[in-house]
Design brief:
By secondary structure, the chain is α/β, with parallel strands linked by helices. The chain has a single domain, classed as Phosphoglycerate mutase-like (Rossmann fold), CATH 3.40.50. About 35% of the residues lie in helices and about 15% in strands. A seven-stranded mixed beta sheet has the order 5-6-4-7-3-8-9, sandwiched between helices. Strand 8 and strand 9 form a beta hairpin. Helix 6 crosses helix 7 and helix 8 packs across helix 9.
């Protein structure tokens, strides 16, 4: 077993404090929102065994006396649209850059694909490109009266000043929670460098290891393993309890933080996750039911689901596994 090494938060990031998403949800939640400090372990093997421990029973996080909204919930994952540094072929990581015109269009198109899927709660990274993607996507939702509102927990004053006093308005709002734990993998000294020039300087093989290896981090940066430690822990502690309660959740984040979460949801191995490719602005849909996550594909329209595939080889493997388990 390979233990994921804890990493100190980047100085520009901060742990989330006790925000009150329940103020906006149609049915209040008493589930505490917190950042788990303990480590978890991932199997770094090529076998098909699950990477993580089985999904925690909702009964461990939600009081039994609480009545669930629904027996199942939708989970939508969206990688942000093209950013200005994507366009320039620069390593971006945790540098906060906005979307391009193409990225804006991708976010809007993603919103059209999920326009008929209910959304009760939105989680994004603390980076503007993910937040823009979530907000733009929601402009296309069928519930035009529902407005996404970013919750500010930077200080007590920020919480007070952004408070919504109208109960009716709160009912028509979707809380948006920004968490640095969902940020893109921190690329260290590669951030801001041109990808082609970096390959010429350090060698294609070395740069490939930095970018695609599970364990090897770039200089003064995070490996995918380190990124998975924070992203999956946050998902387990803050997002999964909401799904267990029946709240439909949208996550707008980044290639590596979402790959980490998908690794957990689909029980991928460390080898499989390194070959995982996520397109910008293309939503992926899961259903959480009976304490299990079931893939429902990438919605290609308001009423139908398309083919769920990262790469051709991985898609064939997942299809074969699904047929075996059916």
């Amino acid at each position: 077993m390979a233990t994921v090494v804890s990493q100190q938060p980047i100085t520009s990031q901060r742990p989330s404090s006790n925000f009150k998403a329940s103020h906006f949800l149609k049915e209040p939640l008493n589930v505490p929102i917190k950042l788990r400090q303990k480590q978890f372990k991932i199997q770094a093997t090529a076998s098909q065994a699950p990477l993580l421990d089985p999904v925690l029973s909702p009964s461990k996080t939600i009081p039994q006396s609480y009545k669930k909204k629904s027996n199942e919930a939708s989970l939508i994952l969206i990688r942000h649209g093209e950013s200005l540094w994507n366009e320039k072929n620069l390593f971006t990581g945790c540098v906060d850059v906005p979307l391009t015109e193409k990225g804006v269009a991708e976010a809007i198109q993603a919103g059209k694909r999920i326009s008929n899927i209910p959304v009760d709660l939105i989680f994004t990274s603390s980076l503007i490109r993910a937040q823009m993607t979530a907000m733009l996507a929601m402009t296309q939702h069928r519930c035009k009266k529902v407005v996404p509102i970013i919750l500010h927990d930077e200080s007590e004053k920020a919480q007070t000043w952004s408070h919504v006093f109208s109960e009716e308005t709160r009912k028509q709002s979707i809380p948006v929670i920004a968490a640095w734990q969902l940020n893109e993998r921190m690329y260290g000294e590669l951030q801001g460098l041109n990808k082609e020039e970096t390959a010429e300087r350090y060698g294609t093989q070395q740069v490939h290891e930095w970018r695609r290896s599970y364990h090897i981090p770039p200089p003064k940066g995070e490996s995918l393993e380190m990124c998975a430690e924070r992203a999956v822990a946050y998902f387990e502690d803050n997002i999964q309890p909401e799904l267990a309660f029946g709240n439909n959740v949208l996550i707008a984040a980044h290639g590596n933080s979402l790959r980490s979460i998908i690794m957990y949801l689909d029980k991928l191995t460390s080898q499989e996750v390194t070959s995982l490719e996520l397109s910008t602005g293309l939503p992926l849909l899961y259903i959480f039911k009976d304490r299990k996550f079931m893939r429902r594909g990438s919605p290609v329209g308001p009423t139908e689901a398309g083919v769920y595939a990262y790469t051709k080889r991985l898609a064939q493997y997942r299809q074969k596994l699904d047929e075996t388990l059916a």
